[in-house]
Design goal:
This protein is of the alpha/beta class. Helices cover 53% and strands 11% of the residues. A six-stranded mixed beta sheet has the order 4-3-5-2-1-6, sandwiched between helices. The radius of gyration is 19 Å and the shape is globular.
Length: 311
């Protein structure tokens, strides 16, 4: 699970909603989950930054969208920042909207008139079938899907087999906590906007993404566990190397769509938040807060400083 899969898991909050998509056929809203206790991390825990001006305080917290339920990432200073916030911001404003997910997947993730077998080589399909069989499926089940969506589904199944759980991810945990505390939940973008970004990658770019995913899954290393541990201990340089640097070099189109473009959009919205007043807690994928095109770097270019918080 390296290269493209790691980048997808840490840069797209939609993965947690996409896994729940099959249940959306019932068109019923899932009950709000109850808050859960998070095991306390040793040391400083996941990385967090703070931005302040005369009447505003904004916390930036790097999240991990899928985690193992036993992952220790809780920290007193993060809890304090969360509790002090007037509102909680995530990548998506509607991540829990399962009823909306299925129509979007049908529109953006499926292309039965242009199946995978018509746009990929026989060797590609054979590799897909070999990987799919290890997951209890076959290539034919994925044939009506667009390449970006196949990459996502394969990664999700593989990660869940390895013990990672979308419902244990940072966003799901913090959303439940915010709901329990009556804090407003807001988002920088909608599920539709996020899926349109992935679906908007060229067919060639999507095929390259899927091929990289198949290579990653065939190797089945324990790199995701290593990356999760780097996140949980606040090792931003390792996150930058594994998620940002490799993605920029190997999949520049996906990097532009999933990271650079979105970071610029969020930077504009954070500037607008600073023009107001109050305290906000912002949780976005850790990949967005690492590297030369990070949200903090873009804010710095606007004269806005984000300081690391360690205690």
């Amino acid at each position: 699970m390296i290269k493209s899969i790691r980048a997808l898991m840490a840069s797209s909050a939609a993965v947690a909603t996409l896994w729940l998509a099959p249940s959306a056929m019932a068109q019923q809203a899932a009950p709000a989950p109850a808050p859960v206790a998070v095991p306390q991390a040793e040391g400083q825990g996941p990385a967090m930054w703070v931005i302040r001006d005369e009447d505003s305080t904004l916390y930036l917290f790097g999240s991990f969208h899928l985690l193992k339920p036993t992952t220790a990432w809780g920290q007193a200073h993060v809890d304090a920042a969360f509790s002090s916030a007037d509102e909680i911001w995530f990548e998506l404003s509607d991540m829990g909207n399962e009823a909306q997910a299925m129509p979007l997947i049908q529109q953006l993730g499926l292309s039965p008139d242009r199946p995978l077998s018509s746009i990929m080589t026989a060797e590609d399909i054979a590799k897909l079938d070999a990987v799919a069989q290890k997951l209890g499926a076959n290539a034919a089940m994925f044939d009506p899907m667009r390449p970006w969506f196949v990459s996502m589904q394969l990664a999700l199944v593989q990660l869940m087999i390895g013990g990672f759980d979308p419902n244990a991810g940072v966003e799901k945990v913090l959303m439940a906590r915010a709901a329990a505390e009556g804090k407003p939940i807001k988002g920088f973008e909608t599920l539709r906007e996020q899926l349109e970004l992935m679906a908007g990658i060229s067919e060639e770019g999507q095929i390259a993404m899927l091929r990289a995913s198949l290579d990653d899954l065939a190797e089945t290393p324990d790199q995701m566990e290593k990356l999760m541990n780097a996140w949980a201990t606040g090792n931003v340089p390792e996150i930058e190397t594994a998620l940002v640097t490799e993605m920029k070099a190997e999949q520049p189109e996906a990097y532009e769509a999933l990271l650079t473009r979105r970071n610029a959009n969020w930077t504009r919205q954070i500037k607008q938040l600073l023009e107001g007043s109050g305290t906000a807690f912002i949780a976005v994928g850790a990949a967005h807060l690492a590297g030369p095109d990070s949200v903090q770097s873009m804010l710095a270019a606007e004269g806005i400083t984000a300081e690391r918080v360690t205690h």
